[in-house]
Amino acid sequence: xxxxxxxxxxxxxQEGKTATLTCNYTNYSPAYLQWYRQDPGRGPVFLLLIRENxxxxxxxxxKVTFDTTLKQSLFHITASQPADxxxxxxxxxxxxxxxxxxxxxxxxxxxx
Amino acid sequence: xxxxxQTPSNKVTEKGKYVELRCDPISGHTALYWYRQSxxxxxxxxxxxxxxxxxxxxxxxxxxxxxxxxxxxxxxxxIQRTERGDSAMYLCASSPRTTGELFFGEGSRLTxx
Lengths: 112, 113
Prior knowledge:
The complex is a heterodimer of chains A (112) and B (113).
Chain A: E1 3-6, E2 11-14, E3 19-26, E4 32-38, E5 45-51, E6 56-59, E7 62-67, E8 72-77, E9 86-93, E10 101-102, E11 106-111
Chain B: E1 5-7, E2 10-13, E3 19-24, E4 31-37, E5 44-50, E6 53-56, E7 65-68, E8 75-79, E9 88-95, E10 103-104, E11 108-112
């Protein structure tokens, strides 16, 4: 069956350092991969989308990589700030959004 | 506002009662999605609308769940004979396309006692 794995344990990072979150998947060939941020009690907010033929995507302090051979995406936040503390979700898309498969998310804590 | 609006934000009900959750998508967005999210889990797909019709309702867990979007804008998720296991955050999202970024509302937290 299709499976997406994100680190279930919270990731604690010192302010100013780079935070790296991992999204691994099996038995799946996604066309797109998306990353969202979710704060407690709120809906997810879209951050970045990367296509299967793209290796890397950047947006301000955010960077996403996509390795279809390793079946892995890495999400980086450089110069991390306490305001970056949230849960980050990855989602794989095959052909359209209603087929999005979601990871359980990784909680990121940036300590001042 | 310009975002996706969901009401109520919180709903507490008793087992066996009927519940309606409303979603008002971003104007002009033809695609609308309902998801359910339990604590510590990712969103779980329930149903997808393209315009007025349900293009895919394969995620609805059973026939107690039903959703409509009669005019291609506002959608209502309806849950009959609620059970304690229905307790979760119900998320609505819309999009101008069938692929790409989803715009989520803040969710409706349902608690069934």
